[in-house]
């Protein structure tokens, strides 16, 4: 039997796009070609129906796709219609995290990339921070120093990541900023899913606070090389603590028989009677 060419096999396995998806893609190309920006309006439903020769339901589905992607807002009323938004990073970040959720990602894999990118981002921010940025960074460090107890310790992990998000928002390179914020979001998810704030690790807390303090001092001095060195050490230290924490937690679960989804992180779907669960 003659085997079909690989390219034909791959193309045959791809899902054929729906008409609404093709229309939404065409609208996106038009937005880019016309250099439309936030606040500009798309043609009304009737004009789009005539242009694409499509039913109202298909055009509305196409617009809904763009709304879900954060590209437009659909407004009702006499002055309603589709208004273009400048998309935030959250929808794209959420979709990528959903994809990676099924890849069994761990802290080591995140830090393999984070160690490289976070250092470059840190250097790119030197000389760009204004006094308001410094105030936010220092307020973040003060909040971290006041945390105590399990819930506060969880909050502390989030605050430590937020310190890096503050730096990312000042980054002049939007792609680098997105990648670093995305990796921080991945770590935030790991904190929740793996309860990575338990057990308490005072050494990790103190190390993070010290590195953040040194970074702020180096930023105020606009010392690029010092910023690079401190962030590189910080990322290597954070990777070491994450690895040790995951090993310790795996051992605890082995002995306790605990699951990853306990207490307030347990999904309500675990309580669904088995007859309602599809196999």
Automatic annotation (TrEMBL):
Residues 17-87 form the HTH gntR-type domain. One of its GO terms (molecular function) is DNA binding. Gene3D superfamilies: GntR ligand-binding domain-like, Winged helix-like DNA-binding domain superfamily/Winged helix DNA-binding domain. InterPro entries: GntR_C, TF_FadR/GntR_C, Tscrpt_reg_HTH_GntR, WH-like_DNA-bd_sf, WH_DNA-bd_sf. Transmembrane segments: none annotated. SMART domains: FCD (SM00895), HTH_GNTR (SM00345). The keyword Heme does not apply. Keywords: DNA-binding, Transcription, Transcription regulation. PANTHER family: TRANSCRIPTIONAL REGULATOR, GNTR FAMILY (PTHR43537), UXU OPERON TRANSCRIPTIONAL REGULATOR (PTHR43537:SF5). This is HTH gntR-type domain-containing protein. It comes from marine sediment metagenome.
